[in-house]
């Protein structure tokens, strides 16, 4: 197993550095089960991404001319309720919010009423039945810590599409963190993201090279 570690200034820099890491060191294989079965993807064995100032704007990557943006603020407005609320559109097997909504409120209450020195403010995504879904949740946990006067997130993705997932996922998590920090009464902090499945599908390989200046 190859362990990758990236430290980035903000969300945009993190995305570009991760693109380079996957293109340089991703394990190439044909998907046998899951999304895009039969297609190829390049995937890192394991990666930790430490983002020191995730609140820096813009929180969506600013791509070079001619490169389609992986996300937009308009899409983020649509995506945020999927992360934070239990509302589920017709045809959706689940939303992250159906698991997180009540836990968000409890973590805020926990820090406000019981103090900051705890390791119990951990939010879980999914349940034992999720393994039987056609596409189980990719985000599986949002751990939190208040330290040095700031709220920090440590998140884990079992599988993570670097092109179509990472930018929207982390931007939405950052907005959630800012909201929770305000409710708790602390400053906004860092994000540490961990995944054993960060990948690029083959349709995105060429455009990813252009985006990060490898072509």
Question: Can you walk me through this structure?
Answer:
- The protein has a six-stranded mixed β-sheet.
- It is globular and about 50 Å long.
- It is built from five helices and ten strands.
- With 215 residues, the chain is of the alpha/beta class.
SSE arrangement:
Blueprint: E1 3-8, H1 11-25, E2 27-30, E3 40-43, E4 46-51, H2 73-84, H3 96-114, E5 122-124, E6 139-147, E7 150-157, E8 160-161, H4 166-184, E9 187-195, E10 198-201, H5 205-211
Parallel strand pairs: 1-4, 7-9, 8-10
Antiparallel strand pairs: 2-3, 3-10, 4-9, 5-6, 6-7
Helix pairs in contact: 1-5, 2-3, 2-4, 3-4
Question: In summary, what is this structure?
Answer:
It is built from five helices and ten strands; from the N terminus they run βαβββααββββαββα. The protein is α/β, with parallel strands linked by helices.
Features:
215 residues; alpha/beta; 6-stranded mixed sheet; 4-stranded mixed sheet; 5 helices; 26% strand; globular
